[in-house]
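Follow-up to my earlier ticket, as requested here are the two runs.
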Amino acid sequence: MPPTYQPIADKALTDELYGGATYNEGWVGWEGKDGEFVIDLGEEMIVETVEADFLHKLGAWIFLPRSVSCSVSTDNLNYKFVEKITIEENREGSVKYVRIPLKMKEPGKVRYIKLYIESVGLCPPWHYGVGYPGWFFLDEVNVY
């Protein structure tokens, strides 16, 4: 993630405050690169679903990611794969907030959650920013 978003990343992704249509209000952005991070729940909890909330705003070169993957751990060393969701390309010009749920096959004890987000990389050929890095913006990660 670009240095601009590092100071807010630790809090913005789990503060329960959803960002608005302007991507500088609580959103954490990555430009042209994939993202990966670990959330520490502080203690083991029974988890069923991890949900990630993304912004789609093509006019600002903000795309939905290509995919989102989740793995979980109790010790931050050994991770168990949960799910990978592939996201269809969306060419609609309207601003959207898209929640991606990643569901465990069975509820289980979890302390650490690792998310990997695959970016579109460069803006696609149909977009007026073709050839330049595209963004993805993530706001909340909810754990149920």
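Run two:
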Amino acid sequence: MFGGEGLFGGGERYPIELARALARQDGVDCELVTFGRQAGFEHDPSGLDVRVLRTVGRLRHHPVHPLGSGLMPALADADLVHTHQVRSAPSRLAAIACRARHIPVVTTDHGLGGGGWWGLLPRLFDGLLPVSRFSAETLGTPTRKTSVIYGGADPERFRPEADESRAGALFVGRITPHKGLDRLIQALPPGVELTVAGTAGHDRLPPERDYFDHVRRLAADRPVRFLGAVTEEQLPLLYRRAAVVVLPSVEKTCYGRSVAISELLGLCVLEAMASGTPVIASRIGGLPEIVVDGETGFLVPPGDIDVLRDRLPTGGAGDRLARR
């Protein structure tokens, strides 16, 4: 979204969509501050101003810990600062700077691990806005400072279309081991096509960094399309044309690594629902808060290939499930 190096998953899209919604409100002057290789400024079609700060380094060489010299000046005139990823380096620096300047600062986490300064980090924020009850419990946020605010989907962009034909399964997300794409590929019933929208994750150590090659090998003899990063215009069409959207996240990856925080919410599930598209998701994290099994979708045990295969539509059942 903001250049070839941009990360693009639910944890990034949530603040973008929230900022766009705020920018459309009368009397709200909202600016989104992010990081990239080159500094820049752009005016989003929604009316949102986007300021890109030049990244001069990364804490522990991690992509979610960018450091840029322009962060403090970018915050100086703010009436309120909302950071995303409680434990990221920019969020910590923003919280300290805002405290020093008496600027109210609130934060939303999207699943980033790391230390919390022995419980002191939440105290830097005036409010904590987790995206689910599960997120609040995971963070252990102080009750008096905490308000759960679920994610949402723009009803204008994500909506059903009666004349769109539906077929196949759709996966939307970062291609990283905890998302369980390998399980979904193995669970595909004969004749069911799978479309994958998303880019490879930033897992730095082997074998996780080879995960994309692993899923490509699994898909070699199956009807799987890898689209890579898709445009803003493409994404709603993909949802509307799918028979089912699947979020098969796992508690333990195919490499045997346990995942402490897999899904705090599941933004693609909400967008699928808004598009009138059935959902199959793992019973994990915050997903049971938005997917009611048998009513608003199906929940399956994380990593259970056989149950996932049983829930996937086959042949014309996909269209019938979508219409229902």
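The only thing I checked on run two: Residues 315-324 have pLDDT under 50 and may be disordered. Let me know what else you need.
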